[in-house]
Amino acid sequence: MRNLIIADTQDITRLGIKSMVREIKDISQVFEVGDKSDLIHVLSENVDALIILDYTLFDFESINDLQILSERYPKSDWILFSDELSDSFLKQIQANDLPFSIVLKSCPLTEIDATIGSALVGESFYCKRVDNHMRTLSRSLESASDHNLTQTEKEILKEIALGHTTKEIAAERHLSFHTVITHRKNIFRKLEVNNVHEATKYAMKAGIVDVSEYYI
């Protein structure tokens, strides 16, 4: 038996979810929260809960906040339940292999029910519309895998992924510290990433740095 946390500011959505899960025997108690602070408080007391969250309506600063929260409570499972999610958001889900289920509010009840059932047993599930769209995004990423990075930016990205500091890269390439900082900002902007970890994941996926080389 698991508890359910409904994290949504829309009354009609909370009412609909409670109606759907009323007959699910694996759910023992349902909590409703209206902001991130309440969510963290309830989750801290229900560490293995299933959370149904409308990310677009909540006060998360970025997907990184959501990722950190899910990692803090590894026994929890998450369903992202929104009207729509942006391409950049879905790309970050893909790039970071985040174990969230995703279903849209416009999906038929059978898909929503299937998503809840999968999440209850710890399995990620994408509704058909999101799954098809993410496949399209993945193909788009493959066809434009360099994100218009210049050769210099690719080389600097490789050095970043290999753990070299900005000072080390500047010294090795005979560039100023500020020039390397500018390159770094441009790389992160083009890749739509926020930190070295995400940039490194991209570099490995795109073949800019070899996995065996990364672990030397």
As a percent range, the share of strand residues is 5-15%
Strand order of the largest sheet: 2-1-3-4-5
Q: Major β-sheet, in short? A: 5 strands, parallel
Radius of gyration: 20 Å
Mean pLDDT: 89
- Please provide the ordered H/E string of secondary-structure elements: EHEHEHEHEHHHHHHH
Distance between the termini: 45 Å
Helix percent band: 40-55%
For the secondary structure, the number of strands is 5
Low-confidence stretches: none
Structural class: alpha/beta
Helices, by number, come to: 11
Shape: elongated
Write the layout of secondary structure elements.
Elements: E1 2-7, H1 11-21, E2 27-33, H2 36-44, E3 50-53, H3 63-72, E4 77-82, H4 87-95, E5 101-104, H5 109-120, H6 128-143, H7 151-161, H8 166-173, H9 177-191, H10 196-205, H11 211-214
Parallel strand pairs: 1-2, 1-3, 3-4, 4-5
Helix pairs in contact: 7-9, 7-10, 8-9
Description of the molecule:
With 216 residues, this protein is α/β, with parallel strands linked by helices. The chain is built from eleven helices and five strands, in the order βαβαβαβαβααααααα. The protein has helices spanning 11-21, 36-44, 63-72, 87-95, 109-120, 128-143, 151-161, 166-173, 177-191, 196-205, 211-214; strands at residues 2-7, 27-33, 50-53, 77-82, 101-104. Strands 2-1-3-4-5 form a five-stranded parallel beta sheet, with helices on both faces. 25% of the residues are buried.
